[in-house]
Amino acid sequence: SKLTNLGHLEMTWRSRVRFHPLLVRILHKSRLRYYGRPEKKVDMPYQAYFEVADGSGMMTMVLWDSLCPEWYHSMKVGTVLLLDKYTIKTSYPFKTHPTPGDSQMKRFAAIEISLNVRDPPTEISIIPEEMVKPEWGLPEVKYRFITRSELDDLPNNHSCDVIGLVTFVGRAERARKREHSEDFWLYRWAHAIDGTSDQPFILELFATSQPDVFERIHPMTYLVCTQMRVIQDLTENPSRTVYLTTSNESQIFITGWHKGQPYTKDAKVKNFIQWMKSQSEAEQIKKTVIGGYYPFPRPPDSFLKY
């Protein structure tokens, strides 16, 4: 059928009601958001957004309500979609934005694609990867993997992807979303090594929309975390500690979930796998720890400083 592209949509969306089908690849995926309120009568008040791209650039796509339980888990990073009967809206201004792996890619930030269950009901098709043709010009998923030896030089809030062997994973803990609120964030701490430094990655992993992965992070698993944010302790602490925390667009993968993921082609991922082949599993197991209370960032060594 006659297709349109994202660049053409941005130029013509105000003068159209009906749009031609779109062929796009998912580059980023947010966690699922629940927006239910007692006074609102919405059957399934869920929302998730994705960054999708074609040869002309990248745009936000929002999945609404009952389409979320139906489609959210099928729409993975790297999935190619054919969309029809979608609507176009002006962008929500307070949304977080992932950092694209390709810094040259054009971003269409003024508008977003809205996928709804009615008015009109969107038609979504997933194109199997083996049927995707090079002439469609869809961009590949690109990453920003770093090694542990590079981490200390990165600025606060820098976005990156990491891979490592888990040597410690703490128990799940809760933190209030706001003071006096009854809503909590669930998170756990983990350490992962990649052979480039004596120090591990210290990872603050909030529960994303992947409970099956979050609950199964164990020592000796290969852990990949994407769209992590660098947190630099900006106080004048000589023993400053750098750690990484998840963002709204982070995805977490462990051994058993890696097959077919786009990052398996990345050079730094391949280097890590080569390093792991040279390691003794028995020696690494001796250094692993699980559970317990992990006070971090560590309190000062004297009460006066505290």
From TrEMBL:
Pfam family, one: RADX
Record InterPro entries: NA-bd_OB-fold, RADX
Molecular function, one GO term: single-stranded DNA binding
Cited Gene3D superfamilies: Nucleic acid-binding proteins (2.40.50.140)
PANTHER family the UniProt entry points to: RPA-RELATED PROTEIN RADX (PTHR14944)
Descriptive protein name: RADX protein
